[in-house]
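Structure request: RmlC-like cupin, Canariomyces notabilis.
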Amino acid sequence: MPIRGPVPVKLYKRDAAETLRVGPLTIRVYEDGSLTENRVSAVLVEVPAGKSGPPMHWHRFHDELFLVTKGTMTFVTPDGEVTASEGDLMTVPPGAIHTFKNASETEDAACYMTATPGHYVDYFRMLAKASEGGKQLAPGEVRHLMALFGTFPPDVESEP
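Returned structure:
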């Protein structure tokens, strides 16, 4: 049924964003899909100098967009590396094998990331909870959490 009548808008303030720590990354959750009926979520991913994001992976069900807002981010794919600078946008459709890193040893980087559907932000929440206090997750634990959200390492075939 279409939405009728006044629909609220919402301003998300950085200081009020839910803040998650996943390894060296800080993830600020602005929209977790609750206002968009899970059509999209929006987070800010902060990557310290010289640090990497997740292991190489692909998503069965969702798209990601990464808009670099600070520094440079290097996106790694089976075809090689692509460096995105502030203001550049990387699109990652379902099935695309990828990861990212901050290749700079001196400058922190950040990117605004959206995921569709929006509930994917719960993956970050689960990772943050599982790794509280600096706990290192075993590779099997990471693969299990990834699989719960249709995310797989490169050696898992994209077709059943």
